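Comment thread on ticket #2218

A.B. wrote:
> Attaching the input chain for the structure job we discussed in standup.
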Amino acid sequence: MTTIPSKSAGSGRSQTWRPQNLKRPEVLLLLMAAAVPLSFATWQALLNNFAIERAAFTGAEMGILQSLREVPGFLAFAVVFVLLLIREQRLAYISLLLLGLGTAITGFFPSVIGLYVTTVVMSIGYHYYETLQTSLSLQWIDKAKAPETLGRIIAVGSFTAIIVFAMIWLTSDFLSLDYVWIYLMGGGATVAIALVAWLGFPQFPEKVEQHKTLILRKRYWLYYALTFMSGARRQIFIVFAGFLMVEKFGFDVGAIALLFLVNAAINVWLAPKIGRLIGRIGERHALIFEYIGLIGVFVAYAFVESAVVAAGLYIVDHLFFALAIAIKTYFQKIADPADIASTAGVSFTINHIAAVVLPAAYGFLWLISPPAVFLTGAAMAGCSLIMAFNVPRHPRPGEEVLVGRIPAAAPAAAE
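C.D. wrote:
> Ran it. Output below, let me know if you need it in another format.
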C-alpha cells in the first residue's frame, strides 16, 4: 500500500491511495474509449486498400458497404428495449466484444459478401457502444465538467489510434504482415480490454432512473435537426474523403495509416483544449465556427488536384469532429436527466437516417461526378450553420432555441 501526502488545507495527515480509487466511472469511460480505436481504427485504416485489393470493390460496392455499416446505427433506438433486459453498463461491454469480434474475423473473408457480413457484425458493436457511451457519459459526468471530460475521452481514443496506426504502418511497410493478422490483433485487443473492464469494475448505480421507452420531445427539435445534418454530412467525409485518397491519389496502406496517425496525434493535444474552449465560449459559437470551416473544406475537396493539399484538407476536416462535442453538451443542458438513455438511442437513429441511404446513392453519384459529392456536403454544412444561429447563448430547459420555442410550462405528456 502506498501513501501520498494529502493536499487538504490544515490536514497534517497522509492520504492512503488504494486501487479502488481507480474504479470510478470516469476511469471506466476512458478505458472503454481506448478499446474502441483498437478495432475501429484498424478496420478504418485497412478498409479501402483491403476492399480494392482483395475484394475488387468499386465506388458502388463501397457505397453499399457503408450503407450496410450504418444500418445498426439507424436501429440504435432499439437499445432502449434491450435495456429492459440488460443494464446499460453491461450492454456496453457486450457491444465492445461484438466490435472486437467483427474486426478480428474480417481478414478471413476477402470477398464482397464476406466484407459486408463482417462489417455489419463490427458495426452492431460499434454503434451500440457509441450510443451507450454517450448516454453513460452524460449521466455520470457533471454538466460543468462535461465538455472537458468528453474532450479527454476523444484524446484517449486518439492516443490509442496513434498506436494502432503506427503498428499498421510498421507491420504493413516493414514486416509485410498479411491483412488477416493485422485485423486479428486489432480486434483481439478490444475483446481483451472489454473482458478486463467487465471483470474489474463494479456496476455503478444510476443517478436518475432512465426511461425504458422511446421518447420524442418537441422542445428537443433543434437537437434532433443538428444531429440529423451531422450524420448526413459526416458520411461524405468517412466514405469518400478516404476513398478519394486511394482512388485518385494512389495512397497505399502505409500512407493512409500515417495520415490517420497525424490526425490522432493532433487530437490527443487538441481535443481537451476544444472541450475547455466550448465550456468558455458556449455551444452556439463553437457550432457556428465548425460549420463555417466545413463549408470551406468541402468546397476545396471538390476541386483539389494535389495529393498534399488533399491530405491537408483531410487533417483539417478531421479536427472539426471534436467540435461536435457541442451538440452533446447542448442536449445535456436542455434535457430532463431521465431522458438521456432513451434520447441517446433516438438521436443515434436520427443521425443515421441519411447515413443508411446516402453512401449507396452517393456511390453511384461518385461514378458520374466526384466533385458533386463534396459540393452537396458543403450545402449540408450551410444548412447546419443556419440552424446553429438558433442555439441560445445559455441553453437550458425552457430556453432550448431562440426561434420556435416550446413553452417551458408545457407538460411532458403533451409532448
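A.B. wrote:
> Thanks. Noting for the ticket: The CA atoms of residues 78 and 345 lie 7 Å apart.
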